């Protein structure tokens, strides 16, 4: 996404965002917040009680000399301190808990939602950006809760009471004290906008930095092989400069908001002194009036400053909330797989493509591809690189949506099937078999608990996983490493084949490895694939002559079209593209 489009005006108003944040994340914790507010009131009122307790200390103990009062007055004061400590700790724990619960719930919800989005979305959004959205944007909203609800509540109540005191002493003085306020409205609005912009920019850079790191660590091998260590570090450092600037600007903006209040209060003090001072000199007011008015103003100072910085807290959180809600409102174009992935009831699993056309932007990838892969037989997809073979797999699994044409399985349009149901009929075994950073067992079972030990063992045997398990320190419980990096290519493939055997799906999509494995391993992988293919409808992107000739039918693709179909002998006799590809391959041998 370009920076310009990221900066476009938010579709959400502040009020709508807060209402939504309240509804989805804060409201479930209302009881806890009320409790925290009560604790906070108790904690706050102990200050008043303590000062009140000074009266008996002086009057009863010191002045009246009543020895019996020493103990109970002393105990009373100690009790107040204990009460203050207990309520303070409890309130802090409750608030932290609620803050963490809301932000982690937002993170869980975000991941849950983002995973339902389709592939097109992930091609535009780099993983680093997504990680940054899910982790840091959600965390930005943590402070909001505390600051906004309790801070505002407490400070507003203090301010109102102080305002009443000030009005009672002298309404005119009160007005005079507030003379600076209107002057600050415009700068405040401008400053808030500035802060929102800078916070949004900061979120962008944070995402860019995560993306950079993600790319570097995922590409650690090419980075090392091409001696890119210094280059990559420089690229990151450049972002660091931007990051520091954005951080400092955001902090400066946030600090200036309460700074504006300082100026307003200073102006108020000055005006009251000049105007009120005259009243006292003229004998219209007592010094006591003036002192209590001044102390009300002084007491109002802290809550006012806190309320001033609240605007900053909101602006920073709002910049993140905007992104989070935008993500929540991005909906998948392909419906998300339901929890109950119901396999459709089909007479057979013959796959048919009718005039399928698909393009990415201006690039036509499939241009009316059409072929049939018969139920229970093996169909080989052959063709030059870039012909669209992998795209056919993506269309079949609905990772990509064609612009026109139709794909049917067993006569039913795949768009009429539940996506989860469709995918539950298909196993995909590709050459870049990706494993998760879990044990081999977990990689094969993928969360299934209904697999018996015998069935697991049978799959391990048939996929020749058993062969290399013995050489691993913890056998089946050996971790596969990040993206399966602790296993060799041949081992990874066999793990994926074992996984597919257990899934036992009627359809198998197979992308044959182009990189040669050593002959012994190759034989084993071949045998494993052979046992996996039995009795299934198999579509294989084939590179090896042996696989191609063994297929029941060959579909030759070129530039997004099917140009020839038939058996090996038919196609050789046609003397077309297949014959040319074949002779190239024979020459290479
Ligand atoms: P094959 O498997 O036959 O080598 P593919 O199906 O992988 O071919 O790709 C066909 C064409 O589609 C290629 O030219 C590739 O660059 C293009 N392509 C594939 N995926 C995308 C994508 N997500 N965005 C843009 N172009 C793509």
TrEMBL record:
The cross-references to Gene3D superfamilies, in alphabetical order and at most eight, read: ABC transporter type 1, transmembrane domain (1.20.1560.10), P-loop containing nucleotide triphosphate hydrolases (3.40.50.300)
What residues does the ABC transporter domain cover?
Answer: 351-584
List, in alphabetical order, the Gene Ontology terms for molecular function in this entry: ABC-type oligopeptide transporter activity; ATP binding; ATP hydrolysis activity
Q: What residue ranges are annotated as transmembrane? A: 32-54, 69-87, 143-166, 172-191
Q: What GO terms fall under cellular component here?
A: plasma membrane
Ordered alphabetically, the record's keywords are: ATP-binding, Cell membrane, Membrane, Nucleotide-binding, Transmembrane, Transmembrane helix, Transport
Entries under InterPro entries matching the protein? AAA+_ATPase, ABC1_TM_dom, ABC1_TM_sf, ABC_transporter-like_ATP-bd, ABC_transporter-like_CS, P-loop_NTPase, Type_1_exporter
Q: How does it sit in the membrane?
A: Multi-pass membrane protein
Q: Which residues form the ABC transmembrane type-1 domain?
A: 34-316
* Annotated localization: Cell membrane
Q: What is this protein called?
A: ATP-binding cassette, subfamily B
Please give the organism. Answer: Palleronia salina
What is this organism's lineage? Bacteria, Pseudomonadati, Pseudomonadota, Alphaproteobacteria, Rhodobacterales
């Amino acid at each position: 996404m370009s920076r310009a489009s990221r900066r476009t005006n938010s579709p959400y108003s502040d009020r709508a965002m807060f209402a939504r944040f309240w509804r989805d994340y804060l409201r479930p914790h209302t009881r806890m917040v009320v409790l925290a507010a009560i604790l906070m009131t108790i904690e706050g009122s102990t200050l008043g009680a303590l000062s009140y307790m000074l009266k008996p200390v002086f009057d009863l103990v010191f002045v009246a000399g009543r020895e019996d009062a020493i103990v109970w007055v002393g105990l009373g004061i100690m009790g107040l301190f204990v009460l203050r400590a207990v309520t303070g700790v409890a309130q802090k724990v409750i608030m932290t808990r609620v803050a963490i619960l809301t932000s982690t719930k937002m993170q869980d919800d975000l991941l849950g939602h983002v995973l339902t989005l389709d592939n097109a979305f992930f091609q535009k959004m780099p993983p680093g950006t997504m990680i940054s959205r899910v982790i840091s944007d959600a965390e930005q909203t943590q402070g909001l809760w505390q600051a906004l609800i309790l801070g505002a509540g407490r400070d507003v109540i203090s301010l109102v009471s102080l305002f009443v005191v000030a009005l009672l002493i002298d309404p005119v003085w009160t007005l005079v004290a507030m003379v600076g306020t209107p002057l600050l409205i415009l700068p405040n609005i401008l400053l808030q906008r500035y802060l929102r912009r800078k916070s949004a920019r900061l979120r962008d850079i944070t995402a860019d930095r995560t993306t950079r790191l993600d790319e570097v660590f995922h590409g650690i091998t090419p980075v090392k092989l091409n001696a890119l260590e210094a280059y990559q570090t420089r690229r990151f450092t450049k972002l660091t400069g931007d990051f520091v600037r954005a951080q400092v600007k955001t902090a400066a903006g946030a600090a200036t908001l309460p700074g504006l209040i300082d100026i307003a209060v200073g102006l108020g003090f000055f005006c009251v002194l000049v105007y009120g001072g005259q009243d006292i000199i003229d004998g219209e007011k007592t010094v006591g009036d003036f002192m209590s008015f001044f102390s009300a103003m002084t007491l109002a100072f802290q809550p006012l400053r806190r309320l001033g910085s609240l605007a900053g807290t909101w602006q920073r959180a709002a910049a993140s909330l905007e992104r989070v809600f935008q993500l929540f409102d991005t909906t998948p174009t392909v419906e998300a797989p339901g929890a109950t992935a119901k396999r459709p009831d089909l007479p057979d699993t013959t796959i048919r493509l009718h005039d399928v056309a698909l393009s990415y932007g201006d690039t036509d990838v499939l241009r009316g591809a059409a072929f049939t892969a018969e139920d229970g037989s093996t169909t080989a997809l052959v063709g030059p690189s870039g012909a669209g073979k992998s795209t056919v797999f993506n269309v079949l699994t609905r990772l990509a949506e064609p612009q026109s044409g139709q794909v049917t399985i067993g006569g039913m349009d795949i768009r009429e099937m539940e996506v989860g149901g469709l995918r539950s009929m298909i196993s995909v075994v590709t050459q870049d078999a990706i494993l998760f950073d879990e044990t081999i067992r977990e990689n094969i079972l993928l969360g299934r608990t209904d697999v018996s030990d015998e069935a697991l063992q049978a799959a391990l045997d048939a996929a020749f996983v058993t062969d290399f398990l013995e050489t691993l320190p913890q056998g089946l419980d050996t971790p596969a490493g990040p993206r399966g990096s602790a296993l060799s290519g041949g081992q990874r493939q066999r793990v994926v084949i074992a996984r597919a055997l257990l899934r036992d799906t009627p359809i198998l999509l197979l992308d044959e490895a182009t990189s040669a494995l050593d002959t012994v391993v190759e034989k084993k992988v071949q045998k494993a694939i052979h046992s996996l293919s039995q009795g299934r409808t198999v579509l294989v992107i084939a590179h090896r002559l042996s696989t191609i000739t063994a297929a029941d039918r060959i579909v030759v693709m070129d530039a997004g079209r099917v140009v020839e179909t038939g058996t090996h002998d038919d196609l050789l006799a046609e003397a077309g593209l297949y014959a040319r590809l074949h002779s190239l391959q024979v020459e290479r041998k």
